[in-house]
């Protein structure tokens, strides 16, 4: 995540806060699933904006999937490691 701007974590926190608010009406699993779906849907739209037509997008499909899966894996790994290192502090 070396290319973050000064509002990166604020935007992320806003999404997390919305998800936390939804916990009053749904389980963690349901909120997590909805959040993952929304990220996938947004990134599909974002990706479509980068192509000129459906055929071009179809040809770039696997590369696009590979990119987003790799980025998610890096971010998930970083955050899991952070929770492992700070478990007692974060889970009080």
Q: Overview of this structure, please?
A:
The model has no long low-confidence stretch (mean pLDDT 96). 0% of the residues are buried. This protein has helices at residues 8-22, 28-49, 54-59, 61-85, 87-90. It has 92 residues and is mostly helical. Helix content is 78%, strand content 0%. The protein is globular.
Query: Runs with pLDDT <50, length 5+?
Result: none
SSE series: HHHHH
Q: What is the rounded Rg?
A: 16 Å
Helix content: over 70%
Major beta sheet, specifics? none
- The percent range for strand residues is under 5%
Total number of helices: 5
Task: Give the integer mean of the pLDDT values.
Answer: 96
Overall geometric form: globular
Topology:
Layout: H1 8-22, H2 28-49, H3 54-59, H4 61-85, H5 87-90
Put the structure in a nutshell.
With 92 residues, the protein is an all-alpha fold. The protein has five helices and no strands.
Features:
92 residues, mainly alpha
């Amino acid at each position: 995540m070396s290319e973050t701007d000064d509002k990166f974590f604020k935007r992320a926190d806003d999404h997390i806060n919305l998800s936390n608010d939804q916990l009053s009406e749904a389980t963690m699993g349901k909120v997590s699933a909805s959040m993952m779906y929304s990220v996938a849907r947004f990134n599909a739209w974002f990706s479509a904006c980068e192509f000129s037509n459906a055929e071009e997008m179809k040809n770039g499909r696997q590369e696009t999937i590979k990119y987003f899966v790799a980025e998610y894996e890096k971010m998930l790994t970083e955050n899991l490691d952070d929770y492992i290192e700070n478990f007692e502090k974060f889970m009080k």
